[in-house]
Amino acid sequence: MFDHEMREAAEHVLFTFRKLGFKVVTAESCTGGLIAAALTAIAGSSDVVDRGFVTYSNEAKHEMLGVPWDAIESHGAVSEQVARAMATGALACSGAQLSVSVTGVAGPGGGSAEKPVGLVHFGAARTGFEPVTEQHVFPGDRDAIRRLTVITALAMLAKLAERQSTLLSS
After folding, report:
1. 3-class secondary structure for the chain?
2. Which domains does the chain have, with CATH numbers?
3. How far apart are CA 168 and CA 144, in angstroms?
4. Which residue numbers in the chain have pLDDT < 50?
5. Is the dihedral of CA 110, 112, 115, 118 positive or negative?
6. Burial of 23 by CB count in 10 Å (0-12 exposed, 13-18 middle, 19+ buried)?
7. How far is residue 100's CA from residue 109's CA, in Å, rounded to a whole number?
8. Reported pTM
9. What is the pLDDT of residues 76-123, one digit of tens each?
10. Distance between CA 119 and CA 135 in Å, rounded?
């Protein structure tokens, strides 16, 4: 189900989080749980993965993660503001130290001039630190966009954990 690159990215997150004693929570929209699935496809991941939220609808984002309605209404579900709120909400609703969130337009429909197919907003939050966000526009069809989203989210998690653990030890 998961290709070599996705598996390596997931293994790297698990290794890094184990080394640092961190747990992770995911908040996913356009990937429909694929980030959590990539992590949990690897045996023994339960010591790192706390939980995952699949919040495909706006109602789910609001009800499960506390994403403010005004953020959704003002900026749209596919926005930096919603990705940030999803990441902080997931962290607050879990026992994890780090979260990652994704919200985007995976296609083939649903895109616009402002928010084209392939646009994905990422959020990541860590207890005691300011959340970070990224935005990417990925090429390809729905499967390619979702695959690249998973790989990017996993890389973002590993990088954030490594960078912030360095800050703590300085």
Report:
1. CCCHHHHHHHHHHHHHHHHHCCCEEEEECCCCCHHHHHHHCCCCHHHCEEEEEECCCHHHHHHHHCCCHHHHHHHCCCCHHHHHHHHHHHHHCCCCCEEEEEEECCCCCCCCCCCCCCEEEEEEEECCCCCEEEEEECCCCHHHHHHHHHHHHHHHHHHHHHHHHHHHHC
2. 4-164 (3.90.950.20)
3. 36
4. 170
5. positive
6. middle
7. 25
8. 0.96
9. 999 999 999 999 999 999 999 999 999 999 999 999 999 999 999 999
10. 7
Tokens of 24: 């992770």
Token code pair at residue 14: 């698990």
What does DSSP say about strands 98-104 and 49-54: parallel, antiparallel, or unpaired?
Answer: unpaired
In the block, which residue shows the tokens 């980030």? 35
Written as six digits, the tokens of 45 are: 């991941």
Answer whether the bond into residue 108 is a cis peptide, omega within 30°: yes
